[in-house]
């Protein structure tokens, strides 16, 4: 919306494919009009070399790892991926996370780049988008170098609220959605408490402390 200076949902089909890492028609991507934007789950090290080296802009979006784990569990279940029960998922995918290299590696690599004051990377969290959407969108507009007055920012915040996005399917890649609502579920902070047992939470906290030693990033775990 910001790049196209509109409050209308995407309807031109560019996002109605899959993520950048799933693309196969590179010639089609080359034909997209500027400014182009891509969504991806790829770690920083796997982003296109020239994009990173030339200082092109990167919006680094992250979420607290506990809610991210629960969200991923429900997403995979809705997609029909045989991940078993939550306890199975916790042991096999949370404690042994390997998606796109794993959340810890992904986060530490980006946070290291952010700490080096790279002005082409903007860190944003799901939690800030949820609880402080107005200042976060304003920061995003400044980063992208687009004009956005207060009314426009408020209109975008309303259009991009979780409820409104859930009710609108225009921006959902058809290869992911397949007629089912698999992208949006609750969109809240702290849903992890509905699945994490006390023992699992303690185990994860121990792993987090060990893995993230020396990394100053902070996440919100409760609304």
UniProtKB/TrEMBL annotation:
Task: Write down the InterPro entries for this protein, in alphabetical order.
Answer: P-loop_NTPase, Sulfotransferase_dom
Which molecular-function annotations from GO does this UniProt entry contain? sulfotransferase activity
Record keywords, A-Z: Transferase
E.C. designation(s): 2.8.2.-
Q: What class of enzyme is it?
A: transferase
* Top-level taxon of origin: Eukaryota
Q: Which family does it belong to?
A: Belongs to the sulfotransferase 1 family.
Q: What is the protein's name according to its record?
A: SULT1
Q: Which organism is it from?
A: Mytilus edulis
């Amino acid at each position: 919306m910001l790049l196209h200076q509109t409050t209308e949902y995407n309807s031109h089909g560019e996002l109605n494919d899959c993520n950048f890492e799933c693309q196969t028609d590179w010639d089609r991507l080359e034909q997209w009009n500027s400014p182009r934007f891509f969504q991806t789950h790829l770690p920083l090290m796997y982003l296109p070399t020239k994009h990173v080296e030339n200082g092109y802009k990167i919006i680094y979006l992250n979420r607290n790892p506990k809610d991210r784990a629960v969200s991923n569990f429900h997403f995979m279940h809705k997609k029909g991926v045989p991940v078993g029960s939550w306890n199975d998922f916790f042991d096999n995918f949370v404690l042994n996370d390997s998606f796109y290299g794993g959340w810890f590696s992904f986060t530490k690599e980006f946070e290291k780049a952010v700490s080096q004051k790279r002005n082409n990377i903007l860190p944003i969290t799901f939690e800030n988008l949820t609880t402080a959407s107005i200042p976060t969108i304003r920061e995003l507009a400044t980063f992208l170098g687009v004009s956005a007055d207060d009314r426009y920012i408020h209109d975008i915040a309303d259009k991009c609220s979780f409820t409104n996005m859930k009710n609108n399917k225009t921006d959902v890649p058809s290869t992911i959605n397949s007629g089912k609502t698999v992208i949006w579920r609750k969109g809240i902070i702290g849903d992890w408490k509905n699945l994490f047992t006390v023992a699992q939470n303690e185990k994860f906290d121990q792993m987090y402390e060990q893995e993230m030693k020396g990394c100053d990033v902070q996440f919100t775990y409760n609304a």
